Amino acid sequence: MTSIRRRTLTLIIGLMLAGLGVISALNLYDSQHEIAEVYDAQLAQNARLLQGVLRMPLASKEHSALYQAFNKALGEAEPRVDGHPYERKIAFQVWNRQGEVLVHTASAPSFTVAPSTPGFSDVVDLKNRHWRAFLLEDKQNDLRIWVGERDDVRADLVGRIVRHTLWPNVIGSLMLAALVWLAIGWGLKPLANMAATLRARHSGSLEPLQLSPLPSELEPMQAALNRMLAQIQEVLGRERRFIADAAHEMRTPLAVLRVHAQNLMEAGSDEERRVSLEHLIAGVDRTSRLVNQLLTMARIEPQAAILPPESIDLAATVRDSLIQLTPWLLRKNLELVFEASDETSRARVDPAAIDIALNNLVTNAANYSPAHGLITVRLAKTEKGYELSVEDEGPGVREEDRERVFERFYSRGNDQGAGLGLTIVQAIADRLGGRVRLENREQGGLRATLEIRRF
Q1: What is the pLDDT of residue 377?
Q2: Residue-wise over 269-293: b if at least 16 C-beta within 10 A, else e?
Q3: Model confidence over 302-327: pLDDT tens digits?
Q4: Residue 77 clears pLDDT 60, i.e. is over it
């Protein structure tokens, strides 16, 4: 793509040339018209002046002498010495009633038939030369006065006017184009400075731009660039945090797996091998859960609170998620109950987010529930939306741990947990515009409640 400067200059110069062409064409047309009017007026005026001279009250002999004097004077004209070159391109003739030429210039054209129509006309003589003529009929003296001018006189004058007008326009347009080039360069200098600043920055630099002074047109661009740089910093920060968290948390499980593998190799009996193998399988399961939790956190954190186009049935979504969890809970000898109000429970939320949050809450409750315990899931409608709560019969949470349980990798002493479940639920609550509450039940156990806005 061409530069902005070149595109702008091309457009402006193109418009200037187009305008110059239109103006020149109008000037040419107007010049031709005005010159034709002026010359036609001169032809008519010369014919009437000649008529006035020929009307002088003289005797017949004196008229003949006058005609001879006219012809002699006109024949002696030398344009190269004491006249003008255009003299031989301007002519007049006078005929009497019998068609005899009484007076004529040396340059007068020859006609096979004398003109007879009064007024202006365009004629061609025997030498194929074009004339603009005016014929005046003097009925008083029975004379026909013809005054003509060759077309090349007018064409030459128009050409001179065009040349004298066009060249200043061309030179002025070139000078104006140069000034426009400089003006556009000066106007685009802030943009060029911004581009130079961006090129000079280190490829890894994410510091915000601070260009000053900055035109108002470039302020949104700088703000957008700074927002993009801030988002890139945030993304890189999440990546570094994820890598650090993963490296920190994977170190211990891998070391434990190595120990179990060594114990399996050194086992002296089948019973010892079986126990070591069970510990190894449990360690692999815990590591798998940790990896899944880390990936879930990485998937949830960058997402913004984007509403789906249509609302969903929360009760049906929760019920489908619990159906998937039921076989696992039965293997752990736990009972699951789901309670929902009879009212319609529809909200514009992401069903995947509800599924992830519910899985983590139920898994957290199962990890702390005693054998043959009861886990109750409730969906209730509130003024602002809905509340999804999960209740268990475990030990609950101590007051001093109520805030810490939302921290990453804090598992309250549970070796089976990765310490990310409630952190993930809190991230989902932030996306849904709600929050997570933890309450100890009077009859024992913990109630974890996720608030869901209706939107």
Answers
A1: 92
A2: eeeeeeebeebbeebeebbebbeeb
A3: 554 455 557 888 888 888 888 877 87
A4: no
Alpha helix ranges (H) inside 55-103: 60-75, 79-82
Tokens 């920055």 found at: 201
Q: Nearest Cα to 51, choosing from 183, 146, 124, 132? A: 146
Query: Of 134, 107, 138, whose CA–CA distance to 123 is shortest?
Result: 134
What does the alpha-carbon distance between residue 340 and residue 317 come to, in Å, rounded to a whole number? 12
Cis peptide before 213 (omega within 30 of 0): yes
The rounded distance, in Å, linking the Cα atoms of 209 and 226 is 6
Q: Quick one: tokens of 114?
A: 């004398």
Beta-carbon-side half-sphere exposure of residue 107 (alpha carbons within 13 Å): 18
In angstroms, rounded to a whole number, what is the distance separating the alpha carbons of residues 44 and 323? Answer: 112
- What phi and psi values does residue 123 have, to the nearest 5 degrees? -125, 160
Give the Cα separation of 433 and 411 in Å (integer): 25
* Helix locations, 301-341, DSSP H: 314-331
Specify the fold of 219-300.
Helix Hairpins (1.10.287)
pTM for this predicted structure:
0.44
312-453, superfamily in CATH?
A: Histidine kinase-like ATPase, C-terminal domain (3.30.565.10)
Q: Please give the sequence-ordered ranges of beta strands (E in DSSP) within 19-171, or none if there are none.
A: 90-95, 101-104, 119-124, 130-138, 143-150
Degrees to nearest 5, angle at CA 46 with 45 and 50: 120
- Cα–Cα nearest to 149, from 125, 117, 181: 125
In angstroms, the Cα distances linking 423 to 235, 254, 399 are: 19, 23, 18
232 is written with which tokens? Answer: 């890139």
C-alpha to C-alpha distance for 207 and 230, rounded to whole angstroms: 8
Residue 440 to residues 221, 391, 397, 455: CA-CA distances in angstroms? 52, 9, 7, 29
List, by residue range, all CATH 1.10.287.130 domains of the chain: 219-300
C-alpha–C-alpha distance, residues 393 and 443, integer Å: 8
For CATH 3.30.565.10, list the domain ranges present in the chain.
Answer: 312-453
User: Helix, strand or coil for residue 145?
Assistant: strand
What's the whole-number mean pLDDT along residues 205-212? Answer: 76
Which percentage of the chain shows pLDDT scores above 70? 78
Does the domain formed by 4-160 have CATH 2.60.40? no
Residues 170 and 128: their CA atoms lie apart, in Å, by 37
CB 72 within 8 A of CB 105: no
Asked if 317 and 377 count as a contact pair (C-beta separation under 8 A), the reply is: no
Residue count (the chain): 455
